[in-house]
Every structure is written in C-alpha cells, then in structure tokens.
C-alpha cells in the first residue's frame, strides 16, 4: 500500500485547523460539527447528480452517494436538534475562522 505524500503547506493547514478546533467550546464545537455534516450532505448530493449525469453504475450514483447523503443529513439533523435543545436562545451558526476548504491540486 502506498502512502499519500502531503505537501508541507497542506500539513500546516491541517495543523492550524486542528489547533482551532481544540480551542472551541462545547457550543461552537457542536455547531461546527453540524455544519460539516451539512456540507458533506451537499457534497454527496452533488456527487450523486454528477454520477447520474455521466452514467456511472447506478449502485454508485443511486446507492452509495444517496446513502451517504441520507446518513449525513440524518446526522446533521440530530446535531442541530441537540444544539437547539441545549442552547434555545442561540442561533445555530458556524465559526467563521474555520473554513473547511481543501485544495487537491496535486501535480503528478
């Protein structure tokens, strides 16, 4: 099995994100987690539509991506529900300093 070689800037970006996550209090961590589940669901929905568009095997488009979408949406709904119950006076939001953007522009 081959190892993935990450660039130093990618490693540093991951270290920075992890350090910021460690600083979050419970409320902001719960909000961040829920937000990431929503973003994952959006990504799986996009992959589902793209896979159908390029005529991939239906087991991948209709099965795998759809199931992953449903799992992420379900998890996000549970987390948002917990957040709203524990912090009824608060609005559910994402900490602005934690972008979840990855750049996979690797050269061969």
Protein architecture, described:
The chain contains three helices and no strands. Residues 95-108 have low confidence and may be disordered. The chain has 108 residues and is mostly helical. The protein has helices spanning 8-23, 26-53, 58-86. Helix 2 (26-53) packs antiparallel against helix 3 (58-86). Helix content is 68%, strand content 0%. The protein is flat.
Q: What order do the helices and strands come in, and which of them pair?
A:
Elements: H1 8-23, H2 26-53, H3 58-86
Helix pairs in contact: 2-3
Q: Notable features of this structure?
A:
single chain; 108 residues; mainly alpha; 0% strand; disordered C terminus
The structural class is: mainly alpha
Assess the beta-strand content as a share of residues. Answer: under 5%
Q: Fraction of residues in helices? A: 55-70%
The main β sheet shows up as: none
Compute the CA-based radius of gyration: 17 Å
Unreliable residue stretches:
95-108
Can you write the helix and strand succession as a string?
HHH
How many helical elements? 3
Distance between the termini: 18 Å
Average of the residue pLDDT scores: 79
Shape: flat
């Amino acid at each position: 099995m081959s190892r993935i070689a990450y660039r130093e800037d990618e490693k540093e970006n991951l270290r920075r994100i992890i350090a910021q996550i460690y600083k979050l209090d419970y409320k902001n961590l719960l909000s961040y987690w829920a937000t990431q589940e929503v973003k994952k669901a959006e990504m799986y929905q996009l992959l589902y539509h793209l896979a159908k568009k390029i005529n991939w095997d239906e087991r991948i488009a209709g099965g795998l991506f759809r199931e992953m979408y449903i799992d992420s949406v379900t998890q996000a709904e549970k987390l948002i529900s917990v957040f709203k119950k524990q912090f009824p006076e608060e609005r559910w939001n994402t900490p602005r300093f934690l972008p979840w953007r990855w750049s996979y522009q690797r050269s061969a």
